[in-house]
Amino acid sequence: MNDFYIVDTTLRDGEQTAGVVFTKEEKLLLAEMLDKAGVHCIEAGIPAMGKEEQDCFKSIMDLGLKADIIAWNRMSKRDINASLECGAKHIHISAPSSDIHIENKLGKSREWVIRRIQRCVSYAAENGAFVTVGLEDASRSDINFVIEMFNKAVEAGATRVRYADTVGLLNPLSAYEIMSEIKASFKGDIDFHGHNDFGMATANSLSAYKAGVNYISCCVNGLGERAGNTSFEEIVMTLKYLENCKTDIDIRAFQDLSNAVQNASGFEINYGKPIVGRNIFSHESGIHVDGMIKDRRTYEVFHPEELGRKHEIVVGKFSGTAGIKYRLKELGFVVEDDQANKIMRDLRSMYARTKNINVDKFLINASIKRNAQITAV
């Protein structure tokens, strides 16, 4: 039972990140990992790009994954035919909806776009495909035109529609207001596709969900064009823990997926990246460490073990006696508070002179030097 569904577009929008290229082997591996993690829909590529992309898409189809494997298309029968020839059962058709795109990029009219999308949707549906329609630059579009296009697409045979905040200009309040207004007039399934240009893609996706949207587009690690897309691991954890949503996504798969995407893309994530950053369960500050040792809930919303990870007490410049004692115990030594306090002062003095310290070696040597009665355990 799921309260929301994930449309992962790492293999399509994620690979459109400037400088990123996935090999066929990498795409197959990532598709299998996403499927094993319980992702519901995987946007696997753009068959119209050519033979290599078609071969890769076919190979992903041949894996027999549980997830819906989606082929991305422009409003073109040529694109759709390329996807159908690859065996695609799920066809996504992207259509511009803002006047900026319709008039300045295509040199067309709103009426032309509606006629075109209806013909393309009908054609794909008549060929046995499940069809979804995405509105590019929807967040800069006339909302009444967006609703009209959604309804016209469904009339032509679309099973789901996508609202794309293509340039990431929504904020959580506007995302909620817009999606609420759309949901009041359109009762079908909507996929919210957020971009992170102002750092709000995940927050906007949460707002869209609260407004009634039940499908969320995202990429592992928030990969994607420019500033990236909604982060897969962030939005799943946000909905699971902050909204108490039911999901069959395996959150223990996040770290391996994150590492695999980093390796394949060549893009390393920030050390503090929510959910998968290397430092997110690390604690150094004396007050924090003291609280963590007494009750982990003081500075952790959920246990790292739920993600297959563990928390770490780091000894450094801001450590207090609790952290010193904790680390020394891990190293096999027991010290009293006054001894730990002396070691803490020694460590801070050392950090005033240099950043490059072998902390464990320093702790052991300082402990022995300060009090010979430290007991190994």
From TrEMBL:
Q: Which domain of life is it from?
A: Bacteria
InterPro entries in the record: AIPM/Hcit_synth_CS (IPR002034), Aldolase_TIM (IPR013785), LeuA/HCS_post-cat (IPR054691), NifV/FrbC (IPR013477), PYR_CT (IPR000891)
- Pyruvate carboxyltransferase domain mapped to chain residues: 4-255
The record ties this protein, via Gene3D superfamilies, to: 1.10.238.260, Aldolase class I (3.20.20.70)
The keyword Glycoprotein belongs to this UniProt entry's keyword annotation: no
Asked if the Swiss-Prot or TrEMBL record annotates the protein with the keyword Cell inner membrane, the reply is no
UniProt xrefs under Pfam families: HCS_D2, HMGL-like
Q: Which GO terms describe its biological process?
A: carboxylic acid metabolic process
Which UniProt keyword terms apply here? Transferase
CDD domains in the cross-refs: DRE_TIM_NifV (cd07939)
Q: List, in alphabetical order, the Gene Ontology terms for molecular function in this entry.
A: acyltransferase activity, acyl groups converted into alkyl on transfer
Q: Family assignment? A: Belongs to the alpha-IPM synthase/homocitrate synthase family.
Q: What is this protein called?
A: Homocitrate synthase NifV
Origin organism is Dethiosulfatibacter aminovorans DSM 17477
